Task: structure prediction
Amino acid sequence: MEFWNHIYEHFNPVAFNIFSIPVHWYGLMYVLALLSALVIAKWIVQKDAIDITKEQLDDYFIYAEIGVILGARLGYILFYDTHTMYYLTQPWQIFNPFIDGQFVGIRGMSFHGAILGFLIGSYMYHRRHGIPFGRLMDLVAVSVPLGYVFGRIGNFLNQELVGRATDVPWGIYVYDTLRHPSQLYEAFVEGIVVFVIIYLYRKRKAFEGELILLYGFLYGIGRGMVEFYRAPDPQIGYLLGEWMTLGMALSFAMAAFSAIVWVYFKKGTR
Result:
């Protein structure tokens, strides 16, 4: 347990270098997250005989990924970054991976921003190719959670989004403070638990689009609860007392919105 408590002292977040450019474990985990989501989607399409071809799925993946990347980055700038006006007035800097000539990668991504970008990209694909929007969303609801596990492991390996101070024996020392490994809590709750529930429920759905609403509710509740163990973003702090964070507020709002929309469509199926 002593080694685990001090694991960051023995771990290099850089996996390897390509010439002078460092490749971080976080980036590799992000690639694995995307690939796993695509593989699971193709498996579900075949297993459940969903009326979407693999070629259509490959095309949709491009739309969705562009939406995720743009939305995640812009969402971070709008919701979390302290230099919002700088980026809005100099938009070419939004995806600039260099600072003072040194490669640092693209830092700062927002999950809630990624959701908005993903929805826009998915809607554009739906409008262009005519595949029912709800069918696409339900497929995503089953495919994404396990990929999200890799994303949270990437956060853990990158030593970011750390937990709140604690005295539990499995805590991780971050800058001499023992903290909850909240990234791993999130990987389990938001990834594995959400996937299992949606996977088992998928054959019982009452209308197309129900699974994505279930995902929004489950993720919102799960993320909101785990936020109790996650330290707030330092540039924002707590919104209320010493417990309400921005991530918590956005997650519970997401859960409430999903529940309201679910009730609306559920009534329409009776």
